[in-house]
Design brief:
The protein has one domain (2-138): Leucine-rich repeat, LRR (right-handed beta-alpha superhelix), CATH 3.80.10.10. The chain is built from 5 helices and 6 strands, in the order H-E-H-E-H-E-H-E-H-E-E. It has helices at 2-13, 33-42, 59-67, 86-92, 111-120, and strands at residues 19-21, 48-50, 75-77, 100-102, 128-132, 135-138. Strands 1-2-3-4-6-5 form a 6-stranded mixed β-sheet, covered by helices on one side.
Length: 142
């Protein structure tokens, strides 16, 4: 069902869709790493993605987001995703436009990993701070 939904978005809004949000609390939601691959390949202009509570998303899916060639991603909410770890933070360092990252309630993402993410981007144009525990924002976003 989700692939039908994504494919219909691709056909109708390929070059204009900038915000993608899916309610993964809905029974039967099957957003997965494959869904992320479809999104990044066919919807390159998406700037805001909310995948909170999508428990089938893993570090491999987030690595696809980080490796996307022309990523315009500014905001990513992956809060309450149980299969996301500090590895995802390393992948997202390549997203040069990223200004907000929400990893709250991700049990495998450590505070130490968040601090490393923030400090690794300290000298870049997107200098990050931890606004709340596991809510990371670019200083220019605030």
């Amino acid at each position: 069902m989700i692939y039908f939904f994504i494919n219909s978005l691709i056909k109708r809004r390929k070059n204009t869709l900038i915000y993608f949000s899916i309610n993964c609390l809905t029974k039967g939601s099957n957003i997965s790493d494959v869904s992320i691959r479809l999104l990044t390949h066919h919807l390159p202009f998406v700037t805001h993605i909310d995948l909170s509570h999508c428990h089938k998303i893993t570090d491999m899916g987030i690595a696809v987001l980080g490796a996307a060639k022309a990523t315009k991603l500014k905001s990513l909410n992956i809060s309450s995703c149980n299969n996301i770890s500090d590895t995802s933070l390393d992948s997202l360092k390549r997203c040069s436009s990223l200004a907000q990252l929400d990893v709250r309630d991700c049990p495998q993402v450590s505070i130490n990993g968040c601090h490393k993410f923030v400090s690794s981007l300290y000298q870049s144009k997107n200098s990050f701070i931890m606004r709340e525990e596991k809510l990371l924002e670019s200083q220019s976003f605030i």
